[in-house]
Amino acid sequence: MKVLFVATVRSHIGQFHMPFIRELVRRGCRVEAAFKDNSADKPGLDLSGIARTYEVPFSRSPYSVDNLKAYQVLKKIIDEGRYDAIHCHTPMGAVVTRLAARDARKRGTKVIYTAHGFHFYNGAARKNWLLFYPVEKALAKDTDCLITINSEDYNTAKARQFAAGRLELVNGVGVDLSDFQPVTREQKLALRRAYGYSPDDFILIYPADFSARKNQNMLFDTLKLLLEKDKHFRLLLPGSDVEARPFLDYAKSIGVADHVEALGYRRDIRQLVGLSDVSVSSSRQEGLPINLVEAMALGNPVVATDVRGNRDLVQDGESGYLVPLNDSRAMADRIWSLYTDPEQTAAFGVAGRTLAQDYAVEPVLHRMIEIYQALELL
């Protein structure tokens, strides 16, 4: 089988899909990939196993004329490549791909789309529903298999009768939990010594690029409330800081900047999460957040916003807490309860490690192979 993976940017393939790609290669498949190269912003990702890559000038913006050029470039790649399957990811990458693959589908190419979180969701802006919903519903008929990774998207596509050949629900992209083993108290203290943090610090961590969707200002408001009670709280923010300035200016304006560390893009997330006490998420919406799966696997309790994706992972009151979006006081109260109750913190950690197993790479790869077999690709 010859398959083309498509995503808006290179890092999406490198961060999320290499385990499955390497499994396909192990089974004798030839895998190629098309994307816009963003390795300058996110370096060090290993794409070994992909036989050939193509540069396509995608833009994340649906209004950008770059996507017209991307369509032309990608259609040429597809028409010349004669692929058995095309597996597309990311919203704009998937829109352009399914349009460009219409002729290929007539020749028998199977088109698969993994939706990593529809732009239309419960609580989304009306313009998202007006723009993205009709496009996705229309393009479903150009999709042989639509894969969703959270229950809300699956239920939306099913209830609204998206006309894809198949509709599937998969537990994310799979996380290699062998790299995310539980951290003992002694290991946590050793990590803190290595990174220069005090044993007395109560460290919160949120690995995410700075953006309006990730909503870091909610965490700054939460931190302000916590610091009014105790000065030992710190917030670590590893992730791309290209758009960090307005967020960090806000942190400074409310007096919490000295307790915040914007760490930039990092390759040592396991160690940073391991030395932390609580993993947090202030996101406005998620597909299925890998950062929370990794946190749970390491034994961190989670306090997260009660939004799509987060609620698939966090069982409120069992493996962590869910709080209303932008309710910083509720988040601060939940974090404070963990700060003052080490036994509850430990219990959440144990429960989270158990739940994380469902999102490990092995069961997800098994599920993906089943889907490819159902499509008669393997």
Topology:
Layout (H helix, E strand, L loop, with lengths): L1 E8 H7 L1 H9 L3 E7 L15 E4 L10 H16 L3 E5 L1 H10 L1 H5 L3 E6 L10 H14 L5 E4 L2 H9 L7 E3 L15 H11 L6 E4 L10 H12 L5 E6 L6 H9 L6 E5 L4 H6 L3 E4 L8 H9 L3 E4 L4 H4 L6 E4 L4 H12 L2 H15 L4 H14 L4
Folded structure, characterized:
- The protein is an alpha/beta fold.
- It folds into two domains: 2-174 and 360-374, 3-Layer(aba) Sandwich (Rossmann fold), CATH 3.40.50.2000; 177-359, Glycogen Phosphorylase B (Rossmann fold, 3-Layer(aba) Sandwich).
- Helices cover 43% and strands 17% of the residues.
- It contains 16 helices and 13 strands.
- The strands form two sheets. It has a seven-stranded parallel beta sheet with strand order 3-2-1-4-5-6-7. A six-stranded parallel beta sheet has the order 10-9-8-11-12-13, with helices on both faces.
- Helix 12 (290-298) crosses helix 15.
- The longest helix is centred in the N-terminal third of the chain and has 16 residues, at 66-81.
